[in-house]
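Saturday, quiet lab. Running sequence design on the C-alpha cells for the scaffold JK sent over.
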C-alpha cells in the first residue's frame, strides 16, 4: 500500500491507528479503491466508509435541525396561548381563574422556550 500511494510505510500504518490523527488522503483512497477493484474486489471500501460517515453525520446534523424546528413550533404555540391568557388577565372583570390560567400558560411558554434554548445550545459546533 505504501508503494501504491507513494507514502512511507509508517504513514500508511498510522492511517489505521486510532491513536494518531493521520487519515487516508482522498487521492490515496482513490488509488487504493481502484487497486482493490483491479485485484478482483467488488465495491470501493474506502469510498463506502466515507459515504457511510457522511450519511451518518448528515442524519445527526439534520435530525438536530428538525428537532429544533419542532421545538420552535411548540414554543410559538405556547407563546401565543400565553399572550392571549395574559391579555385576558388584564381585562376588566378578570377573575382569579383567568389569572391562574395566565400563570399556567406562561409557565408552559417558559418551559417550551427553555427546551428550544437547550436544543440550540446543543447544536453549537465545538470550538
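Result came back. Writing it out in full:
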Amino acid at each position: 500500500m505504501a508503494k501504491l500511494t507513494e507514502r512511507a510505510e509508517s504513514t500508511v500504518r498510522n492511517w489505521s491507528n486510532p491513536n494518531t490523527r493521520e487519515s487516508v488522503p482522498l487521492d490515496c483512497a482513490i488509488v487504493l479503491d481502484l487497486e482493490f477493484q483491479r485485484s478482483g474486489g467488488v465495491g470501493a471500501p474506502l469510498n463506502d466508509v466515507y459515504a457511510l460517515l457522511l450519511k451518518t453525520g448528515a442524519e445527526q446534523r439534520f435530525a438536530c435541525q428538525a428537532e429544533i424546528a419542532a421545538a420552535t413550533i411548540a414554543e410559538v404555540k405556547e407563546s401565543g396561548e400565553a399572550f392571549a391568557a395574559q391579555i385576558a388577565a388584564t381585562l376588566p372583570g378578570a377573575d382569579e381563574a383567568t389569572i391562574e390560567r395566565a400563570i399556567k400558560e406562561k409557565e408552559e411558554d417558559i418551559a417550551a422556550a427553555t427546551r428550544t434554548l437547550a436544543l440550540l445550545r446543543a447544536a453549537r459546533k465545538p470550538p
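Notes for JK: The mean pLDDT is 92. DSSP finds five helices and no strands in the chain. Ask whether to fix the surface positions before the next round.
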